[in-house]
Q: What sequence folds into this?
């Protein structure tokens, strides 16, 4: 509070006193350096809807692109939610974000990838700069268990928190292949009673995510967490993965890039990375499965390689770095994530005649690039954009 008070007083001393939104009537104790009260005006660009000053314990901090900004850079949580929704509506109609899902827009709105498209909707009301959420302001995770009787009802507009626990546990969860196979959703049934019971580890901590991810990505939007659907006991993707691994008697998988062994857990996040399905068997550890009537291979990439912590992955042709951090962790993608968002023309060539199968400026969802396409030159129908990752990427694990 002292730092904020001093900073804004320096602004007022430099000539912006009449425009500053910080009330200089903050009272200080004569016997200590403690601040008793600071009254801060909300900086909502479209006007504040809360008839009270900003409470620094329950607000959202922002940054401005201009050093000359005279606004408080603090906003009521309610005002920020309205402000964020207006920016999301602008982003929905902007450039490549038009093909994004609602979830992708919310994930990227305050990151460089999304903010570069939407910053014009974030003009500060002082007209001197553009506002952006301060991603360094992160709520601390509460590791304490919550008893059912004392659990508070969450507000409908409140975002879920990721609860990180560092306490060890040796519990294992046992799944029944027969029961999961009977729940439908394309889940494979087990062929033998001997395979009916198989154990997966119960996650004891989130160390791999804490090491590889910045603080602002430690949330359920970037890491798939268990939800409360059907009491949290059923999820189609989770049961699809676990039942197929059970039928192959596999409880660990390998990262395609660094070849690190990854244990599979019984709950989300399923691995310290993410699963995806491909038409290519990129590694001997890739598991052949049936998905919607087609043969596919279940593959995995670890969180370190996805976020450039364990390995740097660059296109062999244009040298652009692969953006693995665009994908949610701990879940399953039904398409080849290496085919998504091709960076250069070499990656969009026909597998038969090497002609370009994409028209310039094509923007589509990630899964679209992993489908069968027909070459206009030779008429070949194939998964032209799905190349073996070692043929198009250079992997540096140093």
A:
């Amino acid at each position: 509070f002292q730092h904020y008070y001093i900073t804004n007083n320096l602004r007022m001393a430099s000539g912006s006193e009449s425009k500053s939104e910080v009330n200089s009537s903050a009272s200080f104790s004569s016997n200590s350096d403690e601040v008793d009260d600071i009254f801060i005006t909300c900086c909502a660009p479209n006007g504040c809807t809360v008839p009270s000053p900003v409470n620094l314990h329950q607000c959202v901090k922002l940054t401005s692109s201009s050093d000359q900004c005279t606004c408080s850079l603090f906003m009521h949580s309610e005002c920020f939610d309205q402000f964020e929704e207006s920016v999301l509506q602008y982003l929905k109609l902007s450039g490549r974000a038009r093909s994004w899902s609602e979830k992708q827009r919310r994930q990227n709105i305050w990151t460089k990838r999304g903010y570069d498209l939407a910053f014009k909707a974030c003009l500060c009301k002082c007209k001197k700069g553009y506002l952006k959420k301060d991603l360094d302001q992160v709520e601390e995770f509460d590791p304490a268990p919550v008893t059912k009787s004392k659990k508070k009802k969450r507000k409908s507009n409140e975002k879920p928190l990721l609860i990180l626990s560092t306490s060890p546990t040796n519990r294992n969860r046992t799944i029944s292949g027969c029961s999961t196979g009977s729940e439908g959703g394309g889940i494979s049934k087990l062929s033998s009673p001997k395979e009916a019971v198989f154990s997966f580890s119960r996650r004891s901590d989130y160390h791999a995510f804490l090491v590889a991810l910045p603080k602002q990505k430690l949330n359920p939007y970037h890491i798939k967490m268990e939800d409360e659907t059907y009491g949290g006991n059923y999820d189609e993707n989770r049961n699809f993965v676990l039942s197929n691994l059970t039928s192959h008697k596999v409880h660990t998988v390998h990262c395609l890039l660094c070849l690190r062994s990854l244990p599979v857990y019984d709950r989300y996040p399923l691995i310290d990375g993410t699963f995806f399905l491909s038409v290519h068997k990129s590694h001997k550890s890739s598991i052949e499965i049936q998905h919607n009537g087609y043969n596919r291979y279940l593959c995995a990439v670890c969180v370190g390689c996805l976020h450039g912590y364990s390995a740097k992955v660059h296109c062999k042709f244009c040298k652009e770095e692969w953006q693995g951090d665009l994908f949610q962790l701990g879940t399953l993608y039904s398409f080849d994530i290496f085919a998504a968002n091709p960076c250069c023309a070499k990656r969009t060539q026909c597998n038969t005649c090497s002609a370009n199968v994409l028209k310039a400026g094509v923007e589509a969802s990630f899964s679209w690039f992993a489908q069968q396409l027909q070459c206009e030159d030779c008429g070949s129908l194939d998964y032209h954009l799905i190349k073996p990752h070692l043929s198009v990427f250079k992997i540096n694990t140093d």
Summary: Residues 1-37, 139-150, 165-196 have pLDDT under 50 and may be disordered. The longest strand covers residues 294-302. The radius of gyration is 25 Å.
